[in-house]
Amino acid sequence: MTRVVRIAGLCALLLVVHLSTARAVAAEEAPAPGQARYLVIGSYIAEIMVALGAAGRIVGVGSGTDHIPELAGVPRIPGFRNTSAEPMLALRPTVALLAGRQTRPEVVGQLEGAGVAVQVFPDDVASLEVVPERIDRIGRLLDRKDEADALRKRFRAELDAALAFAAQAEARPRGLFILSGGGRPTLVAGADTHIALLIELAGADNVTDGIAYFKPMSQEAMLEAAPDFILVNEEGLELSGGVPVALKAPGATLTPAGRSGNVFALPGGYLQGLGLNSPKAIRAIAERVHPGLGGGAE
Q1: pLDDT, tens digit, for every residue of 207-264?
Q2: Crossing angle between the packed helical segments 278-289 and 194-201, to the nearest 10 degrees
Q3: Alpha-carbon span 179 to 241, nearest angstrom
Q4: Could you state, in order of their start, the residue ranges of all structural domains in the chain?
């Protein structure tokens, strides 16, 4: 009889422990009262969210966020433009912040149909004025106006310093950006892209005036463009037959940049879109294409 009582008591104790643990796990997974669960597609949006101290409220992010250490353990939504909201909804978001070029209308409809509040951030205009606007918008969303004001001021100060540094250059070399490697097609950044803008602001001339967005470039057009330097994504420096894969673009090895080997990459976080890292990107490009300016990257 005593043994039966002891076993019953032990079972009751284990049940209490199990229920307590289950409640603790459920409480940990559930959003705090009044806090939204954010799905963020777009690295420039994620950077601002993190800078405003909201990394812990992000339950899922899109591709291109590997450079943000605060989001290392957050689930990734693979692909650049998803055709289904199913993997997003599996993360149980309550709010979705989506970059315009990475968003399909049908996905927005699926998210909204499931009760998710969706905000789309247009990114089809290459202008750094969008960055302070995004900071203010996300600051209002998070109810962190003071933090947003401070972040906006810091961004403008960093941008002014980078532009002043690049403005010291006397010559304007010709350059372009080639996107390649990683199993993707080889494309160049057109004149309306954010990367073309960064090249121009760094004191160089982007040479893809006749191209819109990201498209292939013919050998004839490449030779006519005659870039003095070629900026590439990090995968573009991977060797293929002893040559950086970016230089597999038709005619690239025959350009001044290809012949001189003036081909370089920036950290991936600098080129994901116009955002908090854009001043660093401008300065890094300027230092590379205007070696006479000197100075280390800030």
Answers
A1: 998 899 999 999 999 999 999 999 999 999 998 888 899 999 999 999 999 999 999 9
A2: 50
A3: 18
A4: 38-124, 171-293
Class of domain 38-124: alpha beta
CA dihedral 56, 62, 67, 69 (to 10 degrees): 20
- In the numeric block, the tokens 């950077």 are attached to 47
Q: Quick check: 74 and 60 in contact, CB under 8 A? A: yes
Task: For residue 188, give the nearest of 128, 123, 236, 243 by alpha carbon.
Answer: 236
Gap between the Cα atoms of 34 and 118, Å rounded: 17
3-state secondary structure of 282: helix
Tokens of 246: 């970016």
Is it true that 38-124 and 171-293 share their CATH fold? yes
3-state secondary structure of 188: strand
> Predicted confidence band at 102 (pLDDT cuts at 50, 70, 90)?
confident
69 close to 294: Cβ distance less than 8 angstroms: no
- At position 293, the amino acid (one-letter code) is L
Nearest Cα to 232, choosing from 207, 267, 260, 202?
267
Number of residues assigned to the chain: 298
How far apart are alpha carbons 212 and 23 in whole angstroms?
A: 54
Collapsing DSSP states into helix, strand and coil, what is residue 76? strand
What fold, for 171-293?
Rossmann fold (3.40.50)
CA angle 232, 251, 271 (to 5 degrees): 15
Q: Residues 182-189: contacts with CB within 8 Å, 24+ apart? A: 182/235, 185/216, 186/216, 186/245, 186/246, 186/248, 186/249, 187/214, 187/215, 187/216, 187/217, 188/214, 188/215, 188/216, 188/217, 188/249, 189/214
Short-list 182, 224, 194, 211, CA closest to 285: 194
Query: For residues 139 and 128, what is the distance between their CA atoms, to the nearest angstrom?
Result: 18
